[in-house]
Each structure stands twice: as structure tokens, then as C-alpha cells.
Design brief:
The chain is mainly α. The protein contains two helices and no strands.
């Protein structure tokens, strides 16, 4: 079973990546109204969300490895 920390990390990664793809496909490339300041802030925070999600997933993997090492010793 996937741990809570790893699950939250993957959710952050998927949602942030989805929002970045949405902004790029639907708002930046087609001709239309310019992006508002709020949308730029959300776009930047999406990259922060990807970083935090990656940190969560990697920390969960390190914790699992540490627990496995403790069981062996």
C-alpha cells in the first residue's frame, strides 16, 4: 500500500503538472486575452507544487529505506 506522504506528493505533482499544461495549452499559446496577474502567480506556484511533491515522494522513499535497514539490523 502507498503511504500517505507519498500519496500526497504524487497528488501535488499531478495537479501542478495538470495546471501547467492547462495554462500552456489553453491560455498562453492561443490568441486571446492576456494572462492576468493572478494566473501568473498560480503558474509560478504550480512549479513550487511540483518541487514540494517531489520532495515528499523522495522523503517517503528515504523513510521506507531507513525502516527496511532498521528491520534488517
Amino acid at each position: 500500500m502507498i503511504g500517505r506522504q507519498k500519496l500526497i506528493g504524487w497528488i501535488l505533482i499531478v495537479l501542478s503538472t495538470g495546471y501547467i499544461i492547462y495554462i500552456l495549452r489553453e491560455r498562453m499559446f492561443p490568441v486571446g486575452p492576456a494572462l492576468e496577474r493572478k494566473e501568473w502567480i498560480y503558474f509560478i506556484f504550480s512549479f513550487v507544487g511540483i518541487m514540494l511533491g517531489t520532495i515528499n515522494v523522495r522523503m517517503a522513499a528515504m523513510r521506507e529505506e531507513k525502516q527496511k535497514q532498521n528491520r534488517l539490523n
